[in-house]
Amino acid sequence: LENLDVETKIITPGYATIPFKDYVIKDVDSFQVSVGKKTFTAELISTILPESESVEVIFVRNEEYFDRDGIYVDSKTGEGFPDEAERFIFFMRAILRWMERSEWKPDILHSNDHHTALLPAYLREIEFDSTEMADMKSIFTIHNMGYQGIHAQSVLAKTGLPEKAYAGNDVFDFHGDVNFMKVALRYADKINTVSPTYAKEIMSSEEYGFGLQDEIKKRAKDVSGILNGVDYSE
C-alpha cells in the first residue's frame, strides 16, 4: 500500500509484550473512553513501521486492559480473558474517538476479525459531527471463521451504540447471544478473507462457516479473497 502511495496507518492495542524500548516512540493523544458505566484512559503513542518509510503504527495503551501476560489468553489459566468483550469495545471506541479528534481521516476503515468487528456498525449507527466520519467506508477481513467474538447480550449496553440500533435487530442476536463477527458481516461495505478458495469455503457449509455461512452468502457480491502468502515479485 505504501508503494502504491496509499497513506496508511495501523492502529493496534499497546500490549505489554511489545518491546516499546526498541523503537522511537512519540506521543499522539490521550483521552477518556467509556465502557458502559466505567471510564478509562486511552494513551496513544506511535512509531514508524519497521522497514517502511511512512506507515505510522499507533498503539492504544491502557494498563487495565492491555498490561497483561498474554494477548488473547491468560497465561495463568490458559483460557481467554473473561472481559474480552470490554477490552475490545474499549479499543474500538478509542479508535473512533481518536479519528474524531484527529485532522487525519481515512477514506476506508479496515477491521480485522471479531476484535474490531463492531467498527462498521459504529460508522453507520453513531451520529458524527465530522462529514468525513459519516462518509467513511469500511472493509472487514476474516482470518479464521472459528473465532467470532460471541458474548452475552448484556455487553451491548457497554458498546455505546444507541439502543435503537440493536433492540429487536436480528443482526445483534445469535442464538440468544451477540456475535461480533455477524455484526461486521452485515454492516461492512466490503468483506475479504485470506484466499479466494477460503472465501468460497466459508459460504459453502457449517464446517467452514461455523454458523455464519448464510450471512456470508447474503453478501456474496461483496466478498473477495486475497491470497495470503509471499509476493513472488520480491
Multimer state:
single chain
SSE series: EEEEHHEHHEEHEHEHHHE
Residues in helices, as a percent range: 25-40%
Shape: globular
Q: Runs with pLDDT <50, length 5+?
A: none
What is the number of helices? 9
**Proportion of strand residues:** 15-25%
Characterize the largest beta sheet: strand count, sense, and whether it forms a barrel: 4 strands, mixed
Order of adjacent strands in the largest pleated sheet: 1-4-3-2
Structure description:
Helix 3 packs across helix 6. The protein contains nine helices and ten strands. Strands 1-4-3-2 form a four-stranded mixed beta sheet. It is α/β, with parallel strands linked by helices and 234 residues long. It is globular, with a radius of gyration of 18 Å. It has helices at residues 63-66, 84-101, 119-125, 131-135, 163-166, 180-187, 196-204, 206-209, 213-218; strands at 9-13, 26-35, 38-48, 56-61, 108-112, 137-142, 150-152, 177-179, 190-193, 223-225. The longest helix has 18 residues, at 84-101. It starts with 8 loop residues before the first strand and ends in a 9-residue tail after the last strand.
